[in-house]
Amino acid sequence: MNARVAAAWALLPEYLAWHVLLSASALLLGVAISLPLAIAAARSPRLRWPVLAGASLIQTIPSLALLALFYPLLLAISALSLRLIGHGFPALGFLPSLLALTLYSMLPILRNGAAGILGVDPAIREAADGVGMTPGQRLFQVELPLAAPVIMAGVRTAAVWTIGAATLSTPVGQTSLGNYIFAGLQTENWVFVLFGCAASAALALIADQLLGLVEAGARQRSRALTLTGLAGLAAGVALALLPLAGLGKPGSYVIGAKNFSEQYILADLIAQRLQDRGATVQRKEDLGSAVAYRALAAGEIDAYVDYSGTLWTNVLQRGDNPGRRAVLDQLTTELKRRDGVVVLGSLGFENAYAFVMRPDRAQALHITSIADLAREAPHLTLGSDLEFLSRPEWKAVQSAYGLGFRTQRSYQPTFMYRALSGGEADVISAFSSDGRIAADHLVVLSDPKAAIPPYDAVVLISPKRAHDARLLAALTPLIGRVPVEAMRQANLTVDRDQQKASPAEAARALRAKLGL
Fold it and tell me: Reduced to 3 DSSP states, what percent helix, strand and coil does the chain have, rounded to the nearest 5?
C-alpha cells in the first residue's frame, strides 16, 4: 500500500500540471466566448433562445464522446492544412480536450451572464440613460458591475464542471488527473483511483473557493477581496505549471500506450530505456487502437507497441490470413510506403485474441473450439473488451463460424475477467499473453478455420523519428528478446491483487529478467 501511495505522489506534479493548464485554459476561453454572447443574448430576444438552446444541447452530449469527436475532426483539418500551406498541427491531446471543455464550460456562464444583465433593475437603466450615458457606458459602468456576482456564480459552476470533465481527456491523449483513474481501474489499483478522484475534487474545491472570493468582492464592491481571489488563482496556476518547464525541449520523447496492463508495462519499458540515455519522456496512455496509430503517423507520439493483427485488419483493411511471417513482412513494407511508419520488429511474443471459458463451463457444454462454441452460442453470454465487438476480427470470426450470442457485453479488460469468474459471462475475448489465463486455468478455444490473424507485438516508430539514433539505440535491443512466458508473468504481477505491482515495477523486473 505504501509503495502505491508513493507512486501516486510521484506522478502528481506532472498530472496536476497538465490538468490545471487544460482546465484553466478552457475556462478562460469559455469566459472569453460566453460573456460577449451573454451580453448579446441579453440585448436581443431573437438571439437569446438559439444561443442558450445551443449551449444546452452541447451539455446533452456525453463529455467523453465530445472529447473523442474533436480528434478526427482536427485530424482532417490538420491534413488539409498540411496539403494547402505545408503545415499541420497536433490533433491529439491538448487541442481536442481544450475545445471540448471550452464548449462544456459555456452554458452556466451564458445563462448566468444573460440572467444577471436582464436582472438589473429597469429604474437603474433609466437613471443611467437619464444622466446621458451611452449604451456602452451603461453596460460597463452599471449593468456588468451589478450583474458581476451572478456572472461569477456561473463561472464558479463552470470551473467545477470543467475540472471534473478534464479527467476524461486521458483517452484522447491528454495527460490529466484522469490518468490515475483510467490506469487504476484497468489494473485494479484502487489507491490510484481514489487518488485521482481526491486530487480532482480538491482542485475543484480550491478553485471554487478562490473564485468565491472574487464573487464576494464583486458583491461587496471590495477590490481587496477581488484582487486576493485573482492573485490566489494566478499563483496557484503558476506553481502547478512548474513541472512542465522541461517538457517539449530537444531530447523529449512521447511514448504511447493503449488501455490495458501489457501496454502500460511496455510503455514503461521503452520509457526507462530512453531515460537511461538521458532523455525526457512523456506518456500518452489509454489510447484507442485507431487513435494511437493515427497519432503515430502524424508524429504526435514517437513510438508505441501495437499488434500485427490489429494493424493488418484495422489499418490495412485486410481480411485474409497469409501467415505470421507474411503478415509481418507485408506490414513492414506497406506501413513504411503508405505512412512512413517504421515497423522496427517484433518483440518476440504474440498477443492474439482468443476465446476462453472457465474449464467447468467448457467441459459441461463439450466445447473445445470456436466451432463448438458456435453450436451453443445462442444460449450464452459473450464478454469482450471495449473495442473487440467493433473490430474487423470479430466480424471475421462471426463470418467464419456463424457466431450469434444471446447477449454481448463490453467491459474494461480487468472487469471482463471478473465477469467470467463470476458467471456474468460464459465466454470472453481474452488476450493470449495474459497471465490470468494460466492463473485461472481457463480453457483457450482453438480456431480451426484460422479466422483470427496473428498478433505479434511490434515496435512502431513515427516518421519524424525514423532516423533518431538515440531512440533506435534504445529500442532495437528489445526486438526478439521478450518471450511470451516473460510477458505473461509481467502482466500477472500487475493484474493480480496478491502480487500487485505497478507497471513501472513490472517493467523493471522484466528488464532484469531479460538482461536488459
Answer: 70, 10, 20
